[in-house]
Amino acid sequence: MKAEPTPARRMPLLAGGLAALVCIGMAALLPLSWRQGVEARVEDALMRLAAPLLPPAPPSAAVVVIDIDAASLRSLGPWPWPRETLAMLVARLEGAKPAALALDMLLAGPDPRSPQAELARRGVVLPDAVLTALGAALPDGDAKLARALESLPSVLGLVLSPDAAGDAVPPTHILSRGSAALAPLWQGAGVIGPLPLHAKAASGLGIIALPGDADGVIRTVPLFVAAGGVPYPGLALETLRVAQDSSAYLIEEGRLRVGDHALPLQTGALLRLVPGLAKPRVLSAAEVVAGTRPPPGALVLIGGSAPELGGLRSAQDDALEPAVMLQARALAQMLRALVPRPPESAAAWHGAALIAMPLLAILAGAMATPLVGFLLVMLGLFGVVAAAAALFVGAQLLFVPLLPPLAALFGYGGAALAGFIASRRREARLRARFSQHLAPQVVAKILADPNLVKLSGEKREITALFTDVEDFTAMTERADPAALVRVLDAYFEGLADIVLRHGGMIDKFVGDALHAFFNAPLDLVEHPQKALACAEEIAGWAEAFRARPEAAALGFGRTRIGVETGVAVVGEVGLRAKLDYTAHGAVVNAAARLEAANKRFGSTLCLGPGIAARLSPAALRPLGTLALRGFAQPVAVFDLWPSGVDEAWKRAYLNALSLPDDQAGAAFAALSAQAPEDGVSAFRARRAAP
């Protein structure tokens, strides 16, 4: 076969590349927030998958959440609680000697549930002297809470304010070495802090606000935020500082040092939460008031899961989670120094993956079988996931390229689809070229593996078989055209069935002639013997066919057969619109001349020297010599001995063949009388007769 045009060979590669580019273009047109949300969810899934493989938390890293839940509100009263109730809760924790205690709430202004505040809410106006006396007589919840906070290393919450004129909160002590500096931070105009009485009593102040992603999910907890250009620590980080009894934060070489702990500091100073980790222990506030205590030395955070507190946030597990639990998870990660972050060269990695992954997938789709290509692509995607998980577990680097695998899938799909279409077209071409030439099982074998056939051309040994109908031209002149076509259809159908059953390939029908090859396009064991058996069956079947009424009415002639074995060039030739798989060479010409030589010898079957050399000499009857193209000297040609003759008859035939023509006639006449069915003896006897 002529080589396919270059565009056809490249079509799967081009289609795969186009599909990958379409995927990348579609992704570029999507809103950035949507893409980031999808990428964040994929990263969450990877971290959740890899979380069990992370090193275990140190035994000393005990973080406990005191939950103001629905049971606590039923037991201790509705929210907001009087500051005296909060003071009682904090005081209950004093005996556990926590390393630090943080309140995930804003205690702004005086106690809203104090007796004075209640009177004001009810519209009761009392003289100043009465109010002063009443204040001295009634318990002061704010003062009790301040005394409770002073007894523990405590941290209170701050919130960002859109108003620059917020509360005056002392700045955070941050030290830096070299050129180290905080990255751009989450900004606010100002901050709102707790009552000065409480702020003075606390050991630290931290921001309790949590930034949500575009989809509203809280995935990060701020280490630092900025308000009015002044940095403030997040609640979790400030709790760690107080627990470490450190006076300041130190930033150097991209790392944040808090006492004995060192954390990588990334863009935005945000700590990415890792889903799938064991969550900190939770105690109900009601249980603590009743006497249950957290373990000694724990880092304790007080917050609420009751809806009345307004502290529920959308978390990574698609569930509402108390803000205090998110702070507690961040604190637990800091204790483990677990800070997921992208690699410094993430953009370069992503660019390389965006080129390499689609390219490899396109090659798999274009060059491998569909099953193998799909398995390779799936193995590649699994390898990407495994590598990303190993990178996260080993180095806490979070690199999950989403677009490259998607582009790879699109590229593979495009290449595989184009390859499938090309394969189906090639299969259709092969089926059209061979279904009329070969047995169905051979065609199926070629379709299953088209590489078995070298359509572009090859040298191979074949056995060529040619047939012809005697006196066909004269028959066509006297026959009815419709009757002749019907008889020829039946004749060729019978010949084709015999050739295919013996493993041959039908090359073509030319007029009344059949051209067939054996050992092409696929290897056929003992093809000379099978071609000879096919020729014998054709000879017998053709004689029976002549006796059919419609064939006999036309005077259908005897079928002559020529067979030869030799090397030929086989492959597709012709115009692009009409290609023909055929054979060329001396063996093909020889078979045609051998078929015609039957007229000279009076035989039905004429075998050339090539096939004769591959057969048993005892089965061959010499016919004489013939000048064949490609041979310098005339060569001996053969027929098969007639059935039923004995050795004496064969010796007599060989003797008659060696006699001069004037003496051979009588000898062949005697042989014909003994074997009336032998056309060769009868023909030679007639030719020698005067």
| β-strand number | 26
Q: Return Rg in Å.
A: 49 Å
Mean pLDDT figure: 86
Question: Roughly how many Å apart are the termini?
Answer: 55 Å
Helix count, per DSSP?
Answer: 24
β-sheet strand percentage: 15-25%
Q: What is the approximate shape? A: rod-shaped
Helical residues, percent: 40-55%
Q: What ranges have pLDDT less than 50 throughout 5 or more consecutive residues?
A: 1-6
The main sheet comes to: 7 strands, mixed
Write down the domain tally: 4
Question: What does the model show?
Answer:
It is a single chain. The protein has 690 residues and is α/β, with parallel strands linked by helices. It folds into four domains: 6-51 and 344-431, no CATH class; 60-335, no CATH class; 451-640, Alpha-Beta Plaits (2-Layer Sandwich), CATH 3.30.70.1230; 643-690, no CATH class. Strands 1, 2, 3, 6, 7, 15 and 16 form a seven-stranded mixed sheet that branches. Strands 19, 20, 21, 22, 23 and 24 form a six-stranded mixed sheet that branches. A hairpin with a 2-residue loop joins β22 and β23. The longest helix is centred in the middle third of the chain and has 32 residues, at 403-434. The two termini are 55 Å apart.
Task: Label this structure with key terms.
24 helices; 20% strand; 6-stranded mixed sheet; Alpha-Beta Plaits; alpha/beta; 4 domains; 690 residues
Describe the secondary structure blueprint for this structure.
Elements: H1 6-29, H2 32-50, E1 63-67, H3 70-76, H4 83-93, E2 100-103, H5 115-121, H6 128-137, H7 141-150, E3 154-161, E4 174-176, E5 186-188, E6 190-192, H8 196-201, E7 204-207, E8 220-222, E9 224-227, E10 230-233, H9 235-243, E11 249-252, E12 255-258, E13 261-264, E14 270-272, E15 281-284, H10 285-290, E16 299-303, E17 312-314, E18 320-322, H11 323-335, H12 346-367, H13 370-395, H14 403-434, H15 440-448, E19 458-469, H16 472-478, H17 481-501, E20 505-510, E21 513-518, H18 527-546, H19 549-554, E22 559-575, E23 578-584, H20 586-601, E24 605-607, H21 609-612, E25 620-626, E26 635-640, H22 647-657, H23 661-674, H24 679-688
Parallel strand pairs: 1-15, 1-16, 2-3, 2-16, 3-7, 4-11, 5-9, 22-24
Antiparallel strand pairs: 3-6, 8-14, 9-10, 11-12, 12-13, 17-18, 19-21, 19-22, 20-21, 22-23, 25-26
